[in-house]
Amino acid sequence: MRRAQAAAGCLAAALLGLAGCGGSGEDTVEAHLRLVVPDNNIRVEGVECAGARPFDYVRAGAPFALEAPDGSVLADGELPAGRAENADPDVDWGVERIPTVCVMELDLEDVPERPRYLLRLPEGRPLEFERAHLSMDEPLQLIVQ
User: Fold this and answer.
1) pLDDT tens string 106-119
2) Residue 18 above 80 pLDDT?
3) ∠36-47-64 over CA atoms, to 5°?
4) Are 50 and 102 in contact (CB under 8 A)?
5) What is the reported pLDDT for 88?
6) C-alpha dihedral sign at 57, 59, 60, 66
7) Order of strands, edge to edge, in the sheet holding 97-112?
8) First CA to last CA distance, the chain
9) Which of 3, 77, 83, 133 has the most CB atoms less than 10 A away?
10) Contact 13, 118 (CB under 8 A)
């Protein structure tokens, strides 16, 4: 009986230990990113969009990776569809179809905390930003170049 109780106690301790080891033990952050494609394509504001030339690689379903400066991948996925926004909100264009930018919102949770990050898209330069610029209140705006 004692042996069975000891075995049960060891099993419980092992299970508790495994439960505690489920994560990496690293601090994580949420990264709310606003990816702006400055293509100035003529669209109706608010319609679904993808990047126009030369940014046609920034489109729904295109892969992205969030990396640490050492190249390790911290998060990855596919880009969502964008929404067209007025390229120059100070201008009343007076027509329905106007110059727009395509904006995609990325909400990444449980990203390992690092001082700096790189958002890598299928083409173009990686978009670099600092952890200090991430805010819970509003998305960090990154402009595709």
Assistant:
1) 999 999 999 999 99
2) no
3) 40
4) yes
5) 96
6) positive
7) 48-49, 82-86, 97-112, 28-44, 140-143
8) 70
9) 83
10) no
